[in-house]
Amino acid sequence: MKPYYETDGGKLYHGDCLDVMQKLIDEGVRVDSVITDPPYGMNFQSNHRKEKHLKIENDTSLDWLPKSLVLMNQLLNINSHLYIFCSWHNIEVFKKEIQKYSL
């Protein structure tokens, strides 16, 4: 899989995290960190600006979370880093699910 951006210090991939991680795993790639800003599972729509934005696509559930953590667990090296952006609205769900895996 071709990186979106690459330097001597690392590679950046852009896309649906489930697809990207599965392709990297299939290629035998292991990584030192995963940084993801997935849907928050809260059907979010910003109302704090003059210009109203559409709701975030695919932000109605956290059904993707268990599968993504399985893939992250397969992809990450030992003693690596995982950063998942989430909202305080569902932080307990994220914490509970993350604790199920040896990440």
Question: Gist?
Answer:
The protein is an alpha+beta fold and 103 residues long. It has helices spanning 17-26, 65-75, 91-98, and strands at residues 5-7, 10-12, 31-36, 76-84.
Give the arrangement of secondary structure elements:
Layout: E1 5-7, E2 10-12, H1 17-26, E3 31-36, H2 65-75, E4 76-84, H3 91-98
Parallel strand pairs: 3-4
Antiparallel strand pairs: 1-2
Q: Count the helices. How many?
A: 3
**What overall geometry do the principal axes of the alpha carbons give?**
globular
- Structural class, by secondary structure, is alpha+beta
**How would you classify the quaternary structure?**
single chain
How many individual β-strands?
4
Strand order of the largest sheet: 1-2
- Give the N-to-C terminal Cα separation: 23 Å
Rg result: 15 Å
Query: What percentage of amino acids are in beta strands?
Result: 15-25%
* Order of secondary-structure elements: EEHEHEH
Return residue spans where pLDDT drops below 50 for at least 5 consecutive residues. Answer: none
Q: Count up the domains.
A: 1
The residue fraction in helices comes out at 25-40%
Average per-residue pLDDT, rounded, comes to 86
Instruction: Please outline the major beta sheet.
Output: 2 strands, antiparallel
